[in-house]
Design brief:
The chain has about 160 residues and is an alpha/beta fold. Helix content is about 35%, strand content about 20%. Helix 2 (about 70-90) links the parallel strand 2 and strand 3 (about 100-105).
């Protein structure tokens, strides 16, 4: 009888990012966890799924119809890739392989779709003010309730702590 586990593709860690400070904290967590597990990271950014532009995107990326311009995905992907590379350097070796995906849609649904084959889904939460410390944001809440993989919600730093 063979007791050696079957080897196959190792499921990545999926992390949501929008280049915000809370997302950067989530990416750092995902990169460090991926180092420990020896897996890759899939960094996912959603754009164009609401009535406001994504963080870090100029208003010029939006048409007057409310639809994102054709170049928005490229601009968002470039911003996310630059941010991820900076964080990879900060975490150091062994460097984790990172796949960057920028998909159009609501953030929670994009992340749930991207995590179908994942081993873990990581998101940040802004946690602004008293209510933010007591509750999760709408994206985090939806993910926690609907994910089919384990979820980590990286909290904001305690008030007064350096980010």
């Amino acid at each position: 009888m063979n007791t050696t586990p079957a080897s196959g593709p190792v499921a990545p860690i999926v992390v949501g990012t929008d280049c915000s400070e809370s997302a950067r904290r989530a990416v750092l967590f995902a990169l460090r966890e991926a180092q420990l597990r020896g897996v890759g990271v899939r960094a996912v950014c959603a754009y164009g799924g609401g009535h406001t532009e994504p963080p870090g995107t100029a208003l010029t990326g939006w048409r007057t119809s409310g639809e994102p311009s054709p170049h928005l995905q490229d601009a968002v992907a470039r911003d996310v890739t630059d941010s991820i590379e900076e964080l990879r350097q900060q975490v150091g070796e062994p460097y984790v392989e990172v796949e960057v995906r920028c998909d159009r849609g609501r953030p929670a649904q994009v992340l749930l779709d991207a995590s179908q084959d994942a081993s873990l889904l990581v998101v940040g939460t802004r946690g602004a003010g008293l209510w933010g410390r007591l509750t999760l944001g709408s994206t985090s809440t939806e993910i926690v309730h609907h994910a089919h993989v384990p979820v980590v919600v990286v909290p904001p730093p305690p008030e007064g702590a350096a980010g």
